[in-house]
Automatic annotation (TrEMBL):
It holds the Pfam family Methyltransf_11. Residues 45-142 form the Methyltransferase type domain. This is Methyltransferase domain-containing protein. GO terms for molecular function: methyltransferase activity.
Length: 275
């Protein structure tokens, strides 16, 4: 999927990454999807659906919608279809392999757009948001969810763990993306011509009293995401092997008794002005 407009997807398309996206979506479903429910009969487009990890939660929260899900990766789409067919068999979903910069839909085809963890991987998120306006009907809404790796802080603090997280941010930037995009959602949406932009920070806080989040977020989502770029970080000479291993060990220590972890997602909604 290397094109002039799409950056290399820093996390790759491995089975392990597909599992991580599923864990992430399931663990964070309430946090990320609360407030997103579309009326039955609405035409909804999910942009960059990946392996369908969010799609399952979208269709469960909005029974009766007509969902179209697109991704550039045909392999991810096949996995998404299998996942959603298994988890929500009655859902009305059309799957399309397509580049979000060149969508094969007529103007104003959709009432609502849903874009989760996609903009951070694009070289030009402004152009993506501007282009998406074409397929949204006037008065329709867009919902965008992004993380921001700069929002990660934890106890015990560790310069090695922070350095490992910084490697991920650097690699994503080298690939043309932005792992710190969450903080830019309001200016991006407003700059792309959307109105009524509202951004809600949605923090995740984890300690030993929240064992499901210790496993599902600190270990299986965040630490797994950092660990997935080990080889690239070492190959790029961003960090020594010893410092990397210490960083990951220290990240894992935040999931042990006495450790704590914080991360903030940003969820934005906006409306396409009429006229
Ligand atoms: C981090 S994944 C997120 C998947 C899903 N939204 C989720 O939250 O689980 C990013 C997805 O965006 C897709 N993507 C990247 N550039 C794209 C483009 N130009 N057009 C369509 N999909 C794209 C990738 O193939 C990948 O599946």
């Amino acid at each position: 999927m290397d094109t002039a407009t799409t950056t290399r997807y820093v996390h790759g398309y491995s089975a392990r990454e597909a599992g991580r996206l599923g864990d992430q979506a399931d663990t964070l479903a309430a946090l990320l999807h609360t407030g997103t429910a579309y009326p039955a009969g609405s035409r909804v487009l999910e942009v960059g659906c990946g392996v369908g990890a969010q799609t399952v939660h979208l269709v469960r929260a909005s029974p009766g919608v007509h969902l179209t899900a697109v991704d550039v990766s045909a392999a991810s789409l096949a996995e998404a279809r299998a996942r959603v067919t298994g988890a929500a068999p009655g859902a009305d979903v059309v799957w399309r392999a397509a580049d979000l910069f060149d969508l094969p839909f007529p103007d104003a085809s959709f009432d609502h757009l849903f874009v989760c963890f996609v903009l951070e991987h694009l070289a030009d998120p402004h152009r993506a948001l501007t282009g998406l306006r074409r397929v949204l009907r006037p008065g329709g809404t867009i919902t965008v969810i992004e993380g921001d790796h700069g929002s990660a802080f934890f106890h015990p603090a560790s310069i090695f763990a922070t350095a490992a997280v910084d490697c991920l941010v650097q690699l994503q930037a080298d690939a043309g993306g932005d792992g710190l995009l969450g903080r830019r959602l309001q200016p991006l949406l407003a700059g792309a011509g959307y109105g009524e932009v509202r951004v809600e920070p949605r923090p995740v806080y984890v300690d030993a009293t929240r064992p499901a989040l210790v496993e599902g977020f600190t270990l299986q989502t965040f630490t797994a995401m950092v660990e997935s770029v080990r080889e690239d970080a070492l190959l790029a000479g961003l960090i020594t092997e010893q410092a990397w291993d210490r960083g990951v060990t220290d990240l894992r220590r935040t999931a042990e008794d006495g450790g704590t972890f914080h991360y903030t997602f940003f969820k934005a909604t906006a409306v396409l002005p009429a006229g």
